[in-house]
Amino acid sequence: MRPAKGSLELVCPAGTPAALDAAVAAGADTVYCGFNDETNARNFPGLNFSRVELGESIARAHARGCNVLVAINTFPRAGNVGLWHSAIADAEAAGADAVILADIGLLAHAREKHPDLRLHLSVQAAAANPDAIQFYVKQFDVERVVLPRVVTVEEIAAIHREIACETEVFVFGGLCVMAEGRCLLSSYATGKSPNMHGACSPAGAISYTEEGPNFVSRLGDFTINRVKKGEPAAYPTLCKGRFMIDGKASHVFEDPASLDASQLLPGLKAAGVKALKIEGRQRSRAYADAVVKAFRAAVDSLDRGLEIRAGALAALTEGGATTGGAYRKTWR
């Protein structure tokens, strides 16, 4: 892995080669991406990389001193593991700096068949305590774990006192109400598993209709939202839908808001965090450019002892709102 430009490594999303180039140009230390198949958790039409695109993109990123990680973080289905094994081999052949895995069988396969390949543990593995993390470190030589978005800054510091690997934490983007890797809402509605087919709320299950003065979005047979024509309407997922309770429509599971931990960077650094992850491989090249520049400036300000600008990304948040998420939770 090439060294980070600052004290914290900035790990940025890329859903296309153009987004990868934008993230690199904006100051990313590392970019993560996936193949255009079921082996990664953002398997949407028109998104992700072919084998040729990945190899060419890695070469361009490396030429500018940027690392590239390949997410192979879905769970193979019985009798069809070959697709996932090929993805690991192809990522290594393309020059990936590490693969991001969640499945224990894939981790064992990668360690045995690709001994020189660096392994990161995906957030999809939901390893949120020292014992779980150390299991992956000891069994598979995992060198970094992406922590689930359910731990506080104090808990991250406690984890670091007992583990022998790097940690990477989310600092911006969409949130899930479930511990990663354990959500079945989309599976229930569509019959497709985000954890095995790679797409939460797959596009093929979504419909939009105009009904009188309203614009209605549905996922499978479920009405997710009903807004007046012209009002903003988010991508329809069950967890962020509006449902009628006692005659009132409200966000029952989760209000639309984006995680923004930019003001928590000093605490995360002090807790021992190595890398900062930005969510959003399904977002645009413009999103990658804006978010990476903002967090590049935040890390640089932190290293210079300057104040980190607050609210710099308000225009790119879900619902126009931000949250500190579980980093500041008062609940268990």
UniProtKB/TrEMBL annotation:
Cofactor(s) for this protein? [4Fe-4S] cluster
According to its UniProt record, in which pathway does this protein act?
A: Cofactor biosynthesis; ubiquinone biosynthesis
Superkingdom per UniProt:
Bacteria
Q: Where does [4Fe-4S] cluster bind?
A: C176, C183, C200, C239
Q: Which GO terms describe its molecular function?
A: 4 iron, 4 sulfur cluster binding; metal ion binding; peptidase activity
Keywords (alphabetical) are: 4Fe-4S, Hydrolase, Iron, Iron-sulfur, Metal-binding, Protease, Ubiquinone biosynthesis
Q: Which GO terms describe its biological process?
A: proteolysis; ubiquinone biosynthetic process
The record, for InterPro entries, names: Peptidase_U32 (IPR001539), RNA/ubiquinone_mod_enzymes (IPR051454), UbiU (IPR043692)
The record, for Pfam families, names: Peptidase_U32
Q: Subunit comment for this entry?
A: Forms a heterodimer with UbiV.
Q: What does this protein do?
A: Required for O(2)-independent ubiquinone (coenzyme Q) biosynthesis. Together with UbiV, is essential for the C6-hydroxylation reaction in the oxygen-independent ubiquinone biosynthesis pathway.
Q: Which family does it belong to?
A: Belongs to the peptidase U32 family. UbiU subfamily.
Indicate what this protein is called per its UniProt record. Ubiquinone biosynthesis protein UbiU
- The source organism is Blastochloris viridis (Rhodopseudomonas viridis)
